[in-house]
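Protocol step 4 of 6: structure prediction from sequence.
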Amino acid sequence: MSHDTTQARLAQQGAPSGQLDEIFARRLRALRLAAGLTQQQLAGQAGMHRSAIAKSEAGDRVVPVGEAFRLAGALGTSVRELVTDPGDGTGRARADAQVRLRAAEHDAARRRDLLEEARLLYAHALEVLEEARQQLAAADGKD
């Protein structure tokens, strides 16, 4: 599908075709920053070069449809979100909610890891105490 065909199709979904590249560039940068990613990190996750991300964010590069889908996937969003002007605030609110959700998921995973580590340490402490108890009992029996 050509870039013009893609723009016409997206324009039917709400954005004027002349503004899509500008909206995409702004949204790409905003969503990347909201996700706490550098251009290099986003490029790595999307299988692209950092310079392609920089040029896309500056509006100096037309992003092929396949790359737009890879970028959306790396950002945890949709292509529609990348080409929707958040002037009404819903796009930004959704992006913020996605960032908060990813942070909460990360925090929950970290808590699970810490809980498992504490459980293992507790089990080890019980083993050490039991071994010490047995050694004391053996020493008391020798006296």
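Step 5 (inspection) to follow. The radius of gyration is 26 Å.
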